[in-house]
Amino acid sequence: MISLENLSLQFAGQRVFENVNLMIGPKDKIGLVGKNGAGKSTMLRLFMNELLPDEGRVVIDSDVSLGYLPQQINCTDTRTVFEETLTAFEEFRKIEKDIEHLNQQLANRSDYESESYMELVELLSEKNDRLHILNAGNIDALCEQTLT
What is the pTM of this model? Predict the structure, then answer.
C-alpha cells in the first residue's frame, strides 16, 4: 500500500500540493493524469524519495516496489535506451546478485547445523521471497514491456 498523509509541498513560494491525502491499495491500478505543470512528475519523485514534502508524509509498505524512469534522463552516450531503462530495475538485479552470492557462500560450507549457516539459509529465503513478491521474472522481458 502507498499513502500520502496531509502532504504539502511548495517550490519557490508556489504551492504544488496542499494537505493531499491519498491511499493506493495493493490491487489498485492508477494513472496520473493532468496538464503540464500539474505535479505528476513531482508526485512520482515524492514516491521515489527524490523529494521530501514540506509537511505530511509518504508511506510505502515494505513489500511495495516502484519502478520509475524519469522524463529527463541524465544518460551518457555509452548506454543504449534499453540499458538506460534497465536502471529502473536495479533493485531486482541487486537481489539477484545477493542470491547468487548467498548460494556461493552456502555451497562452500559444511557446517550445516551451525547457527551462522542457518542465518544464511534464512537470509536466502527472505531474498527469494522478496524477488517473488516483486515478480521480477525475466528482467529483460520486463524492460522490453516497459519500452513498448
Answer: 0.50
What is the Cα–Cα distance from 127 to 92, expressed in whole angstroms? 10
- Residue 107: count other Cβ atoms within 10 Å of its Cβ: 7
For residue 11, the number of C-alpha atoms closer than 13 Å in the C-beta half-sphere is: 8
pLDDT digits 0-9 by tens, 64-114: 877 666 666 666 678 888 887 777 777 788 888 999 999 999 999 999 899
